[in-house]
């Protein structure tokens, strides 16, 4: 499957780098969304994430602008909830995922949104993703209801399917376009930075990410 927005390692111009975290209840498909976005793959029998997984992916927005996401895919099980602040701390953007076939998963997503709005960076860009549209015959959450909530809460909103790839790249591209790229400069408060139009120096990892290999 071709996608002009993804993976242009030789793209010239400006490279921006952002920390993105995925949050949501267990089994809503967070890891599957990331796998589809990063590797364009889907696994029906993917095991639950333990702690968090780390991946990266780049999006080529235009001939002069590339965004790199450092993605933390968090575990949804309740026993890992206390670890979440470790991953959303200093995050520039977040995807909060629910399962359109499980009504309770949207309520959990709303609680994550509230926590991010209360605890995370006040400028964080948050997207709400209703996953598993390939199971629309089992839909328990109407698109209009979730979209109205997202609008009221100031969130980006997409319904997605990691299985069919529907709207997955559009979701992450929309986040990339929402980032305040025109405001970034060397040593900016945001982790994304622009260095002399040559891109971010990826050989020196940031010092304040509180990353944890779990």
Tags for this model:
214 residues; Rossmann fold; disordered C terminus; alpha/beta; 6-stranded mixed sheet
In words, what does this structure look like?
The protein is of the alpha/beta class and 214 residues long. It has a single domain, classed as P-loop containing nucleotide triphosphate hydrolases (Rossmann fold). It is 25% helix and 23% strand. The chain contains five helices and six strands; from the N terminus they run βαββαβαβαβα. A six-stranded mixed β-sheet has the order 2-3-1-4-5-6, with helices on both faces. The radius of gyration is 17 Å and the shape is globular. The chain starts with 13 loop residues before the first strand and ends in a 36-residue tail after the last helix. Residues 186-214 have low confidence and may be disordered. It comes from Ambispora gerdemannii. It is a lipid-anchor. GO terms for molecular function: GTP binding; GTPase activity.
């Amino acid at each position: 499957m071709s996608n002009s927005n993804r993976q242009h390692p030789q793209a010239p111009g400006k490279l921006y780098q952002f920390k993105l975290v995925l949050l949501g209840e267990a089994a809503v498909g967070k890891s599957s969304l990331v796998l589809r976005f990063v590797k364009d793959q889907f696994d029906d029998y993917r095991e639950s994430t333990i702690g968090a997984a780390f991946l990266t992916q780049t999006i080529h927005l235009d001939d002069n602008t590339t965004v790199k996401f450092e993605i933390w895919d968090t575990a949804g099980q309740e026993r890992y909830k206390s670890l979440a602040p470790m991953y959303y701390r200093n995050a520039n953007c977040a995807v909060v995922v629910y399962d359109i076939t499980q009504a309770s998963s949207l309520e959990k997503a709303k609680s994550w949104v509230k926590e991010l709005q209360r605890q995370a960076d006040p400028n964080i860009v948050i997207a709400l993703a209703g996953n598993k549209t390939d199971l629309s015959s089992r839909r328990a959450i109407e698109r209009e209801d979730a979209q109205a909530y997202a609008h009221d809460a100031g969130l980006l909103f997409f319904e997605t399917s990691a299985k069919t790839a529907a709207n997955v790249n559009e979701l992450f591209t929309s986040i990339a376009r929402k980032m305040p790229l025109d405001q970034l400069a060397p040593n900016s408060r945001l982790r994304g930075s622009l260095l002399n139009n040559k891109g971010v120096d990826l050989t020196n990892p940031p010092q304040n990410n509180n990353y944890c290999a779990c």
